[in-house]
Design a protein that fits this description.
Elements lengths: L1 H8 L6 E8 L6 H11 L16 E2 L1 H6 L10 H10 L6 E10 L2 H6 L1 H16 L4
Parallel strand pairs: 1-3
Antiparallel strand pairs: 1-2
């Protein structure tokens, strides 16, 4: 992972980025498999859907320029990535390699139910809810 980050940051226009996502428990749910697949398909890559579990990395100068993460209880990672992308068209880089994260909380609630809840929260946030 470090070599991939170093390679991405060798382009001085890149200020940060993230990895693709894979769930440790993917074999337990088609919903988890589908969600992680979306992070690997080029046409679905969107900085509007980058969460911290995708291994966000950023140059210190860019982090300081953006005053770091907002002090929000949720979606501070999405907000940060959206602000990071405003630093330039090539400021954000998707690394074509996956980081593995736990789906424990999703499995407790149910992956489909959790994704629907997450989607509702994101939509409400984009519509201005705080």
């Amino acid at each position: 992972a470090i070599a991939a980050i170093q390679a991405a940051l060798s382009d001085t226009r890149v200020m940060g980025g993230c990895f693709e996502l894979r769930f440790h428990e993917e074999d337990q749910s088609w919903t988890l498999q589908l969600w992680s697949w979306f992070t690997r398909v080029e046409c679905f890559r969107s900085t509007r859907l980058v969460f911290g579990d995708r291994g966000i990395f950023v140059r210190r100068t860019a982090f300081e320029q953006l005053n770091g993460y907002s002090e929000w209880p949720i979606l501070e990672d999405v907000d940060f990535v959206m602000r990071l992308t405003r630093l330039g068209a090539t400021a954000f880089h998707f690394i074509p390699s996956a980081v593995t994260t736990s789906a424990r909380r999703m499995l407790e609630v149910g992956p489909l139910r959790q994704q629907l809840l997450n989607s509702g929260i994101i939509i409400a946030w984009y519509l201005g809810a705080t």
